[in-house]
Design a protein that fits this description.
27% of the residues lie in helices and 24% in strands. By secondary structure, it is α/β, with parallel strands linked by helices.
């Protein structure tokens, strides 16, 4: 059986993606299940994170967000039975590619897929849903009446964060990195036929004449926002690919008293004046790395609760993902190369 794998290079551009043979265990451990994969999502691989967590291999498996049908269960599996439809995320240290016909994984990384949710929707939402839920609930403790700023809100995770926050009565501000993203965010509605927009104000940072701080302060009466979720920050004058990201000083300036900043920037450096400003505002900072859910068995129950909550909200229509048309398996290699280089957002592969 074949699967898609990555041969890490010195830089992102040097990563090579290849389809190669992979073996599926014939005997399951007591808590493992065998899954026939129906769809798989392609998201960028964080090779640096894997190296830092001492997960070093000549090739890294590609495609961790999977959905499929249980074929076989281990002797002590209690959550599932053959024939169940499931969705889950392969752990960071997995040796199996989700772009295989059949995979083996622990039952603790899967949840039941609701019948009314499609294969593509489930695979496309599970990872970014966990990320958005972690940012809003686990770190920011979002509550009705809060004001939230989602940066690059048209991204896969950003859209889900907007929808999740709105469902809790949160006032949402969103930044857009292009005119197309801005138009998309402005027409977002909680359901078909509803006139109310999910976003109170879309801030087109692609327009050099638009000032993020000025607009946010205007929208909050000069008080600042309660929660900020970024997609990276600009630490200094950087390359064109990062020029639309806010500077860390901008984010700190925008935080209101008692505010919370959830960042995806793994190289963030705070100088003493930055820390002093956060102290004066009694503000807090969290680093968004959803991979830690599988780092400790003590967190496993919470992790499964989040995944169940995500698919339930998907089933009820609270979360409505904006997904690209899925691609066939033979296009997976080229699609993954473009996703890894940032030339396109998440792609989905179907194996029906």
């Amino acid at each position: 059986m074949k699967g898609l794998y990555c041969k890490p290079g010195q830089t992102t551009a040097d990563h090579k993606f290849v389809i190669q043979e992979t073996a599926v265990p014939t005997v399951l451990d007591s808590h493992q299940v065998k899954v026939q994969v129906k769809a798989c999502a392609l998201s960028p691989i964080n090779v640096k994170l894997m190296e830092e967590m001492i997960i070093q291999r000549d090739v890294c498996p590609v495609g961790r967000e999977v959905v499929g049908i249980i074929l076989q269960v281990g002797s002590k599996v209690t959550f599932f039975h053959p024939g169940d439809e499931v969705v889950g995320i392969l752990p960071l240290d997995t040796e199996m590619s989700g772009l295989s016909e059949v995979i083996v994984m622990d039952e603790y990384h899967l949840v039941q897929k609701p019948e009314k949710v499609s294969w593509v929707e489930a695979a496309g939402v599970i990872h970014d849903g966990v990320r958005a839920y972690t940012a809003l609930h686990t770190f920011a403790r979002v509550a009705a009446g809060h004001t939230l700023l989602v940066l690059d809100a048209a991204s896969a995770c950003g859209v889900l964060a907007v929808q999740l926050a709105h469902s809790h009565g949160v006032r949402v501000l969103a930044s857009a990195h292009s005119a197309e993203d801005q138009a998309f965010l402005e027409q977002l509605r909680p359901s078909v036929g509803v006139q109310e927009s999910l976003v109170a104000r879309v801030i087109g940072v692609w327009n050099s004449q638009v000032d993020l701080i000025e607009v946010c302060m205007e929208e909050t009466g000069g008080l600042g926002v309660d929660i900020i979720i970024d997609s990276g920050v600009r630490l200094q004058e950087e390359t064109d690919s990062r020029r639309l990201l806010p500077h860390k000083h901008d984010i700190i300036t925008l935080l209101g008293v008692g505010g919370h900043w959830v960042t995806s920037e793994d190289n963030l450096q705070l100088d003493p004046p930055d820390s002093r400003m956060l102290f004066l505002k009694a503000a807090s900072l969290s680093f968004l790395n959803q991979e830690v859910w599988t780092s400790s068995s003590a967190r496993q129950g919470r992790y499964l609760h989040i995944m169940r909550n995500i698919v339930e909200k998907l089933s009820t229509g609270t979360l409505r993902p904006q997904l690209e048309e899925p691609v066939p398996l033979y296009e997976a290699t080229v699609s993954m190369e473009m996703v890894q280089r940032g030339q396109m957002r998440k792609r989905l592969v179907v194996q029906l």
